[in-house]
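seq/struct pair 1
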Amino acid sequence: MSAELISILVLVVVFVIATTRSINMGALAFAAAFAVGELAADLDADGIFAGFPGDLFVVLVGVTYLFSIARSNGTTDWLVHASIRLVGGRIALIPWVMFVIAGALTAIGAVSPAAVAIVAPIALSFAARHGISPLLMGAMVVHGAQGGGFSPISIYGSIVNGIVEREDLPGDEVALFLASLIANVLIAGAVFVLFGGLRLGRGRAVAGDAGSPAEEETRLTAPRVATLVSLIALVVAVLAFDLDAGLTAVTLAVLLSAVWPDTSRKAVGEIAWPTVLLICGVLTYVGVLEEMGTIKWAGEGVGGIGVPLLAALLLCYIGALVSAFASSVGIMGALIPLAVPFLAQGEIGAVGMIAALAVSATVVDVSPFSTNGALVLAAAPDVDRERFFRQLMVYGGVVVAVVPAAAWLVLVVPGWG
């Protein structure tokens, strides 16, 4: 049995154990990375830790630290109240407001995780306050961020269009953007209907209602003003100056803690440490798979299939499955070149194929193992995190199973481009 196949089977075992026993999947994944790396791939510690997501670790810690402070000093309550007033108190519209805000941020240049890091804590605080499903709200935020993620001026769009140009493939920037936007709007609409959006009906939230912010929660105190300035500074730092979201968030949180230690003292304890362990462990194992060539091995095996349409479908599924655990753009950067040989045959339209890969590899970011899904999981207040994790995992699995086939059927089979 090849080392690549062993590594895939071990990943399956990790999933089975984690879902049947009360063991943090991240801890299991670290153990699996050590065993597979040492025994099957002959990797030393440096090779095993090459895939440790240090940047994601800092993002998860920094953003949850900053928003824990915002919750403790009442800033998120103020933001929730502002969101209510924005739509005239119509609770049913709030998920769509969050969808649009997240999409606007990515469309103008924010990377998807940065947009989700900014919007998710506010959106999920509102969901907790008004009894909205956290899965509904979290999915709306993530799909909103992905909906705007492939605009011609966005980070994802620029990267993918650059890959297309480098590989000398025909491309269409507008078609790529519209494909992702329409797909995510449709999925968000389905999520809204299936997870209770229609039951929100004509309900309104106003100050003083049960479960809505009381008057004292809507006043701007000095700590809240400083926290709001910090959140705006985080947005500006990420979008305008391309600074790291995690490091910026940690710095801002430390400054707030230094000035107002009483309201910030418990914030470190409220960082979502189990989620950090979960995500970092799984992604470290995925890094081992990349180091030992498992992902490339699987992709090349699919690319060698002699039936272009079948190969295209399998590439979409590989993109979706692997992207649920790793970098979406990184996966597209690997899969688009693998598609070049059968795209050159002219039987598959390049524009449609690239759009299908883009959609397949990004809509799955609702998975709790992806950066966006992890941020949603970490940002949700007052939830059973294990239950919410399972909900995100099941929903992510449904998206992985359904969307690649739908994207292939709509974008690839007709031969667009």
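seq/struct pair 2
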Amino acid sequence: MRFTSLIVELVRARPRLIFWIVVLAQAALWLLLPWLLYGSPPGDVATVLAFGREYQVGTHLGPPLAFWLADVAFRLSGNHMFGVYLLAQLCFILTFWALFRLGRAMVGAQQAVLAVLLTATITAFSFPGAELGPLIVARPLWALILLHTWEIVGQGRRRAWFWLPVEIGLLILTTSAALPLLAMLAVFVLATAKGRRALLSTDPLYAAVVVIVLVLPYWIWLIRANALALPSLPAVAEFQERLLGWGGLLAGLLFALSGVALLLIFNSRALDRKSEDPPLIFRPPVDPFARLFVYVFALAPPVLLSFIAALFGQDQVIGGDGIALLLAGLAVIVAAGDLIALRRQQHLRSVWLVIMAAPIVVVLGMTFIQPWIGSTEVKTSLPARDIGRFFGENFERRTGRPLAAVAGDPHLATLIGFGASSRPHVMFDATPQETPWITPKLFTENGGVVVWRAADTVGTPPADILKRFPGLVPEVPRSFERLVKGRQALVRIGWGIVRPQTPRQSSR
């Protein structure tokens, strides 16, 4: 008698239910883990908040949308990181919702769920779950662009023209990868008969106007900042090194697909020694144009984005793995055929769960085990709230003013930037052109706190900080407990106050 697991039956009968269970469970997990385990945000989230607080039209970090959204989420949650983590997971949910809808339109709901399950393994290996920034905000926008492009070109739905230009404009305002992505999209549309036919209306004119209106302020900033020029191409002697770097980036993308490869191996016919027929997941025949669409946007982005990154000497794929590999799972499903056999169901379920649990084990290990066995500092173990509260309250107690600005060590400064109740400006004093909202002159006039990693109990400032802040009087260093201390020493922070030079204006 053939055995069919409950999950397979649910995939057949209730594919939408399986989709929401998988996506919401993963989103809830990556919402709770950082919220409960991290004393300070992962990755560059603190920097994202520091820049988002200023609402600049553009910075050296790129387009502004992700930074603005991070600050809005932080403020709406009562200046708590929970709102930032929640926004990251909402981006994750929206990305997979768009992917599921695209898959359902091409291969049916049942096989679309399988594509989501495969893509979830890629997420586990390569997509940072809580590090809100341009890479995370761009994913749902690119997924929605692909979905609505397909509805326009492949299905002839003109109503999708209402959403597509808005998403294109927001993508340009989110990531520098927007231009190569949109160039690929334009080439595909112009190179296919259906694509050219979809342009034979007034809808593209409406779309162009909407995009121009959305991105015009950012383009004006680019022109004024002289930031339109591309980075210089490498010398001929460096091309071999850059090609090796491209190979390394492609190898990283292939590693991100290792979960998919592992599931395909366990589902292969060669390992199935049972004589009984496996359960099948059926779909209607796939439209050849849909097959072409999926293959192009599953293969072109990882190749092109990794090549651009390697050409300009970057160590990460332009736009991130999440955009480059977005359609990889759907491409595997499209290539698998109209009937997909699910062999060794218990093993498939176990392997999938192990893949999904692997990053959780890594996070738990980095949080609770790394401090006991390693000497490398875990950045998420720093008590950002305690650090920000201490320096904010001390500055206000000594000067009678809320802390307005913080400088010194960039990482500590960004933690205080969101940890202090006054949300002070962050100044990168070593590179002040990167934080144009506050100059060294304004910092001296309005006052602030300068922080650094103290190497002794005296708290002597580093020579470069003393050079930039002559006359700075160091205070007694402040030590903070880590989330998990382990074998590591306390976090000792040296600091000094730059007192305001302008008199305080009294309010009536």
